[in-house]
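Appendix C: a fully annotated inverse folding record. The material below is reproduced so that readers can follow the format used throughout the book. The structure is listed first as tokens, followed by the designed sequence.
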């Protein structure tokens, strides 16, 4: 760069004339643009200003001529000395300027480092907030996914319940069909058993009829023989009676024709007696004549025997028809079974009958098992219905609980939204009053420097506002108390001398952590020494007078005295305290103007 070295300057001095205006122009140059006191100049602006100043100096040197025709050697030497001084001053100035720029660059680096640190912290905060936002969005997405899954599960549950109901209906229909089939099978089995029993009865009846037929044939032969014998005997008796009647008729006619042979009634009676005797004799096997009545009786017996024989013939014919029918049935059975004789058919029928009875027993056992299974099925169905009712109740309870939870979630969301809105409103209010609170805090001051620095560092926020208010309240209370003490306000003449007003609230106090101490402390129970002192007082007061009621004015005086003693911090004795024998009371009375503790704010 021209003009920075001494040779270049001397070259310029040969070419330029003497500067006009003396050495006033050789004073050190200053930056063209001075930065404001509150803002440091930027490096680029400083570099541009330095370049502009150098260019201006170069132009001024080039425009002036060191050797002019009117100048002398002394003036030239003085000009060179002035130029050398000017260059030295410029060197000193630029050296200082470089050092200042270095310091400024160091400050700039520190500021950049602080800015980077702040940016990193802010990025961390933003990353934490973005992380929380991402977590919240992920939680919302997971919640929506779970809700979708819950809806899908509910749909699947409803479809499953519907399918279960249809399957139950189908199972009930199949059970009804099976029951109908079982009833039809049982009916067919009963009919089969009835047919088999009927066949067995027919076979047994056939056998009995065959036996009866044989017996009847034998009886018929016997009866035929008897009838033939009786007919022969009756015919012989009839011929004999007929002959006797003819003989008797001939004798009667002869006696009727002769008048001399008329008999008396006594004789007729004797004749009747004789006839009776003859009849008895005939019955006993003696032969004699028969009367008309006897003949009629014999004829009627013969007619009855004839009709009996005819009836027997009819019965025999019916039995023969029955036998023919049974023979036809036997032929049919022999054709169907291949059995040709009764002797082989009867054992097979008996075996089949035994098999039928065995099958009947097995069927009865199966029926009993089916009945027990039906009973068990009824019990199981009853249990299924009970479990279905329980499941329905449980589903109703689950749906009810789900609805209640949904309502609670909605209420919680609405409450959270309201709380967020209220919190934002309160936060805006806190931000609005933050300058005023800080101003008041700075004005009233704080005794604890650590607490004050901590509060001022954190600023007025929703978490530190209570600390600010506590410190402000404490300091204002102390200031008011000092003011009242100095100005004699709140001091009244009470009892003896000037004492503090008992209705005045206690100045709030704080512990080492900055928390406010409660004005009312928890009372302590009396110890065994107190009870001993109480017993001593009772023994001492046995000989005293009877106990009298206390006056209201005296009670008021005692309360005021105890309150005054507790305010002043003395160890006065009080009969109203819990340990009343010389023990200090742990309870303090507050006036109407007492303020709430900071814990309730």
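Designed amino acids, in order:
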């Amino acid at each position: 760069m021209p003009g920075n070295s001494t040779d270049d300057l001397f070259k310029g001095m040969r070419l330029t004339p003497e500067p006009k205006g003396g050495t006033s122009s050789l004073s050190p140059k200053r930056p063209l643009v001075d930065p404001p006191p509150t803002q440091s100049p930027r490096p680029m602006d400083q570099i541009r200003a330095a370049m502009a100043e150098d260019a201006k100096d170069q132009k001024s040197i080039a425009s002036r001529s060191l050797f002019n025709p009117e100048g002398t050697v002394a003036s030239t030497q003085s000009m060179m000395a002035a130029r050398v001084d000017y260059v030295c001053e410029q060197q000193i100035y630029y050296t200082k300027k470089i050092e200042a720029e270095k310091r400024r660059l160091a400050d700039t680096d520190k500021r950049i480092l602080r800015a980077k640190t702040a940016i990193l912290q802010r990025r961390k905060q933003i990353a934490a907030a973005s992380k929380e936002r991402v977590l919240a969005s992920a939680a919302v997405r997971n919640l929506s996914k779970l809700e979708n899954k819950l809806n899908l599960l509910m749909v699947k549950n409803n479809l499953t319940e519907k399918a279960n109901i249809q399957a139950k209906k189908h199972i009930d229909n199949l059970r009804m069909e099976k029951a109908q089939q079982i009833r039809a099978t049982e009916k067919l089995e009963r009919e089969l058993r009835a047919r088999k029993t009927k066949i067995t009865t027919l076979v047994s009846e056939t056998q009995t009829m065959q036996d009866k037929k044989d017996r009847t044939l034998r009886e018929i032969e016997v009866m035929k023989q008897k009838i033939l014998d009786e007919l022969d005997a009756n015919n012989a008796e009839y011929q004999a009676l007929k002959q006797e009647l003819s003989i008797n008729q001939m004798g009667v006619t002869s006696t009727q024709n002769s008048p001399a042979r008329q008999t008396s009634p006594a004789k007729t009676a004797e004749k009747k007696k004789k006839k009776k005797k003859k009849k008895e004799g005939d019955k006993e096997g003696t032969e004699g004549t028969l009367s008309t009545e006897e003949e009629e009786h014999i004829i009627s017996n013969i007619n009855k025997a004839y009709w009996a024989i005819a009836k027997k013939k009819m019965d025999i014919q019916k039995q023969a028809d029955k036998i023919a029918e049974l023979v036809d049935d036997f032929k049919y059975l022999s054709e169907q079974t291949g059995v040709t004789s009764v002797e082989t058919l009867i054992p097979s029928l008996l075996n089949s009958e035994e098999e039928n009875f065995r099958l009947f027993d097995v069927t009865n056992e199966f029926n009993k098992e089916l009945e027990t299974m039906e009973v068990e099925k009824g019990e199981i169905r009853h249990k299924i219905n009970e479990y279905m009712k329980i499941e329905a109740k449980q589903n109703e309870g689950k749906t009810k609980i789900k609805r209640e939870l949904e309502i609670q979630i909605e209420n919680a969301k609405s409450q959270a939204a309201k709380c967020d809105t209220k919190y934002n409103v309160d936060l805006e209010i806190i931000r609005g009053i933050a300058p005023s609170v800080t101003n008041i805090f700075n004005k009233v001051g704080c005794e604890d420097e650590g607490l004050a620095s901590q509060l001022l560092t954190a600023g007025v926020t929703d978490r530190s506002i209570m600390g600010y208010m506590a410190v402000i309240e404490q300091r204002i209370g102390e200031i008011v108390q000092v003011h009242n003490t100095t100005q004699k306000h709140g001091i009244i003449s009470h009892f003896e001398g000037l004492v503090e007003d008992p209705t005045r609230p206690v100045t709030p106090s704080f512990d080492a952590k900055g928390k406010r101490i409660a004005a009312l402390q928890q009372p302590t129970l009396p110890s065994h020494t107190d009870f001993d002192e109480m017993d001593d007082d009772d023994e001492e007061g046995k000989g005293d007078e009877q106990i009298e009621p206390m006056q209201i004015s005296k009670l008021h005086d005692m309360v005021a005295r105890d309150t005054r003693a507790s305010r002043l911090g003395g160890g006065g004795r009080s009969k109203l305290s819990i340990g009343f024998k010389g023990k200090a009371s742990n309870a303090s009375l507050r006036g109407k103007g007492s303020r709430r503790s900071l814990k309730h704010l």
